[in-house]
Every structure is written in C-alpha cells, then in structure tokens.
Amino acid sequence: MSKKLLLLSTVGLMGLSAPLFAGEATGAVAGLLGSADQWYVAPFGTYFNPAGARNADHEAGAGLAIGRIINDYFNVEVKGFWQHLDAETGGEGDIAGGSVDLQYYMMRGTFSPYTVVGIGGMDTRFANRSSASVLGEAGVGATYDVLDNLSVRGDVRYRYSFEGDGGAYAGQTQFHDMVVNVGLVIPLGQKPQALASPAPVAAAPVDDCATRDTDLDGVNDCEDRCPGTMRSARVDDTGCPIRIELRGVNFLYNSDALTESAQRILDGVAGQLLSVPEQRDIEVAGHASSEGSQAYNLRLSQRRSESVARYLKAKGLANRLYPKGYGEDYPIADNDSEAGREKNRRVELVWMGD
C-alpha cells in the first residue's frame, strides 16, 4: 500500500507542475516539423516488481510500443508487453498484455519529461491457472536524445489490475504492481526538429523628427522654429538665424551698385527669408576693407548696406531692415592681402533682439 501511495503522490505532483513546464516548453520549442504525422517505434525492457499477493520475485520483461506525436504536448501509443513470474515458493508464470497510452510532455527538447496514463488488458498464467484482467497505469518518465534519430526513454508506472473471481491467484482479485520500463525511441521517417524561431521582422523605421536636421543648422527638426535657414547662417538654440554673411554679394568698384551675380544671390536670400516665420528686425551691416580713408570707407559701407536693404524690401521682405555701415572697424581677415581685403568687404544680416 505504501508503494501505491508513493507512486500516486509522485504522479499527482508531476501533474500539478505540468502547466509550469508547459510554459517553459513554449519558450524552448516553437513547434515540431511534421509533428502530427510523426510515427515511431519504442522497444523496451522492463523491471517488474509484482504485488505481494502474487508471491513472486522481482522479474524482467520486454515489450514494444508504436506511437504517434499528436502535437507539442501529447503522444499516443499502442503497447504490447510480456513479464515473467517466478514464485518465491516454486512455480513459474508470465503476464502478457497490451495497452493504449497517452503521454503528456511538459516540455520538448533534448531532455523531455512526461507523464503517462494507460488502459488495457492482460492475460496472467501461473501454476496451471490463467485469467484475463483489465489494467490501468499511471506514471512519469523522460526521453533523452542521444542521436538525431535515436532517443533513450525510461518511466516508472503504477499498475492496477482487476481479475475478478476465479483468476490465476485463488482468492485474489486486485493487484498493485510497479513497472519500470527502459528502452529506445526510433522515429519512422525524418525525426521532428524544433522549428526555428522566425526571423525578427525589422520594425519600420520611425520618422522621428528628433533625429533629423533637414537644414543642417545643428538644431533637430522637432525643436527648429525656423526650418529651411540658409546654410551659411548662424542660428540660436531654436534654429532661428542670428547672423548671415551674404557671401558673393559684391558691388561695382567704388560703388554701392549690386553686380548681377549679387542680385541673383539676394533673390535666393529673399526667398528663404520669406519662407521662415521669423519677424524680428534685421540689421543690414556693411563692412569695408582698409583701402581709402576711414571716413570714406564708413560712408561706402553705409551706402552698400542701404543698397542691400532696398533690394530685399523690393522682394517683399516684411521684416524691418536697419542698414548700418561699419567701415573698416570689424575686419575678419588680414587687410595686407587682396584675398583678405576681399573677405573684409562684406554685408551681413544680423537679427536684433526678441
């Protein structure tokens, strides 16, 4: 009776833990290729521990099962078996029978634990008596893959059998035996393999304005209040222009008349400024090189800044423009070379305050 209680407790505990293992199996094995069509054979040897009422020694046996994988969790098998009986007081016999078993796999992998229940019948022959009986089995076991097409398997089962009156053992109608099976599992055809996890689908790139700087002014598009600023512009932390040097805006010699190329450049500047929602006042700052007197250069830079302001106003710029000449007071290059003097002769747009 203690053997029976021990086995029933083990089966019960494994059954209660099955949902936990099932969750792990789902993460470990996504599925089995061809699982619904996978058949296998499973020859096995048996250690048979008969019930005390049989008055028999521990004996051996053998059997063969043919099974099918139903899905990730269940196998079904048809099994035939034979076990020898050797009475402690003399006499021999054997048990032959078969059952239909249902196995529940808590996880599938290289090591695959399972629980099993079965129902069937058997014929017992002992001491010139024989009887047929019904049986039920329950137990736990596991398979372990040793090769691509070969696994070893073992399980421990409690077997209940009922013979009724007039059986092989006079006065005994019920038996509680322990059966230990160890054998092989050989797939018929290609062994099921774990499905490879599907390749992760790359998420569509998110159009994130925080990662873009369309006008290349150093302020991302999310925070840029003045998109589309000129490439040569210096901007504040909101992307709005602070200062723009009007490179290439040149004048006729010793004059405030714009060259044709300067007018084309200012046309582009006006178009960009009109597209920027920045209405602050703008100072149009004129600068000169050191050729000529300082007073003359101051007047020339003033006239040139006024010329640029008039041209931009004529193009529809709404900002208030304040032309101011600085003469040669703020050079950005050396006035000793023509290249340096050319850089110093310039016009800049400077945004004024808030």
- CATH fold group of the largest domain: Porin
Distance between the termini: 95 Å
Radius of gyration: 48 Å
The CATH architecture of the largest domain is: Beta Barrel
Class from secondary-structure proportions: alpha+beta
The percentage helix is 10-25%
SSE order, as H and E?
A: HEEEEEEEEEEHEHEHE
Q: Give the integer mean of the pLDDT values.
A: 80
Number of helices: 4
Number of strand elements: 13
Main sheet summary: 8 strands, antiparallel, barrel
Number of domains: 2
Beta-strand percent range: 35-45%
Largest sheet, order of strands side by side? 1-2-3-4-5-6-7-8
Can you tell me the residue ranges where pLDDT is under 50 for at least 5 consecutive residues? 1-34
The CATH C-level name of the largest domain is Mainly Beta
Summary?
This protein has helices spanning 2-28, 260-275, 294-314, 338-344, and strands spanning 39-49, 59-69, 74-86, 92-105, 111-126, 129-147, 150-162, 174-188, 233-235, 241-245, 282-287, 321-325, 346-351.
